[in-house]
Amino acid sequence: MSDNAGGDPLRRRAFLALCGTTALAGCAAPSGDGGTSVAETTDGVPTTTRTSTGTTAGTTDRGTTATTDSTETTQGTTETPDGPSLSIDPAVAWRMHGADAANTGVLDTAGPGDRPEKVWDVPVEGIYTLPGAVYDDGVGYVGSGKEFYAVDVAAGEERWTAPVDYLAHHFSPAVADGRVFVSVRSLDGVRSGGGEGVLYAFDAASGTVDWRVDMPVSSPPTVADGTVYVTRSEDVGVLHAFDAASGNEQWSFRFAPDGKRGSIYGAPAVVDGTIYATASAHGNDVQSYLYALEGGNVRWRYGIDAETRVPPVIRDDEAYVATASGELHAVGLGGDDRWSVDGPGAIFSTPAVDEERIYALAKGELVALSREDGSETWRTATGDQLINGLAVTGDGVYLGGSDVLALDRDDGSRRWRFPIPGDSGGYGAPVVLDGAVLVGACIKWEPRDPYDDHVFALA
């Protein structure tokens, strides 16, 4: 319906940590994030602080004094077994959650044709499931534990690492115009709202902090046309727009439909200057809305009688919204209802949408639906991939889990399977880049071992 309105683990590991979706769950119970306290202004408005390496920033225009941020540049110890090397077309890039600002999860490239081999691995901190990596101009970027990493993907070597105040495993970063934008947050409040967090802007080449905003972020950042969009959830959900160069806030919008408490999760989608975001209002009944905004003003909103935990996906002239109860909705970009269907089950990871189909993970199955009317095209059992994301390319559909799977996108048949060693698996969407795959993993090698985080480069 449309509503028009105005510490090191015992075993140091083997991989980088590049996967591909928002990871809200952990591999192990938290040991405490020990996060550094950060400040907001007394009215709860997020505070932006611009910093440079080795200096203490002065007082910002909002009266908050920033502390020194430092960046450690290191060279990681990398194992490079005999096997293929990585050579990636420089034109190929996966720059943010869902590959692009529309959250499509689709990239015009091809993955390995046959079962791949491991090429390299780089160690990273962390014991939780990994967020989705991003890739641009030969470098992969990912956060794990309380560190953020830039890695030369061809060589499998660290370019730089930078400490962050809170845990970096919740959200995919975004890279644009020489900067990497990173959402980090405490463990508390991830589902319920609140907690503490920071939105960072790092220089992509050096890892120095250009600016930061202190607030309880609840989504990966989306970058489009010089603006960074990110959400927060406390008593209500708020969408913020920041200037990508300076960190100055351009506008914000509070999601409190009909005066109810609201929450917003997932990377906003941005297409042709319009921002699309989903928010849930909590009362006696859960109601969700797809909003279309321009400059902080509402163009229209579309109501859904169910909770949603994933962002919208925009493709051509339609927006696609999945709910926690398994519904899928297609909405025209004017707010008109196109179709709605009962999907495969609860959907907690962002669907991917190509020219013909919508791909959604639910209840250990991957289901492909027609974009025309939502009818089912095929489904295939995938095992334990509930919270994982998808990567769709010209030659297949890729997903993580206890195994990394490559499926034929026309019929869902398996093309190859790469098993993750140990206990647990690879979480998040694999990043598929010109014949190579980057996939993160959270592994328990022995029953009494702690979990280790890894990234495999496969080709």
Number of DSSP strand runs: 36
- In this structure, how is the largest beta sheet organized? 6 strands, antiparallel
Strand content: 35-45%
Low-confidence stretches: 4-26, 28-45, 47-81
N-end to C-end Cα span: 46 Å
Name the shape in a single word. globular
Q: What's the CATH superfamily, by name?
A: YVTN repeat-like/Quinoprotein amine dehydrogenase
pLDDT averaged over residues: 80
Oligomer: single chain
What's the architecture in CATH terms?
A: 7 Propeller
- Identify the CATH class: Mainly Beta
Total number of helical segments? 0
| Coarse structural class | mainly beta
Rg value: 20 Å
Characteristics of this structure?
globular; Methylamine Dehydrogenase, Chain H; single chain; six-stranded antiparallel beta sheet; 459 residues; five-stranded antiparallel beta sheet; mainly beta
Describe the fold and architecture.
This protein has 459 residues and is mainly β. The chain has one domain (2-458): Methylamine Dehydrogenase, Chain H (7 Propeller), CATH 2.130.10. Helix content is 0%, strand content 41%. The chain is built from no helices and 36 strands. The chain has strands at 2-3, 47-50, 118-121, 134-136, 139-144, 147-152, 157-163, 174-176, 179-185, 197-203, 209-214, 222-224, 227-233, 237-243, 249-255, 261-264, 269-271, 274-282, 287-294, 297-304, 313-315, 318-322, 327-332, 337-342, 352-353, 357-362, 365-370, 376-381, 390-392, 397-399, 403-407, 414-419, 423-425, 431-433, 436-444, 452-458. The strands form eight sheets. Strands 1, 16, 17, 18, 19 and 20 form a six-stranded antiparallel β-sheet that branches. A five-stranded antiparallel β-sheet has the order 2-11-10-9-8, with no helix packed on it. Strand 35 and strand 36 (452-458) form a beta hairpin. The N and C termini lie far apart (46 Å). The model is unreliable at 4-26, 28-45 and 47-81 (pLDDT under 50).
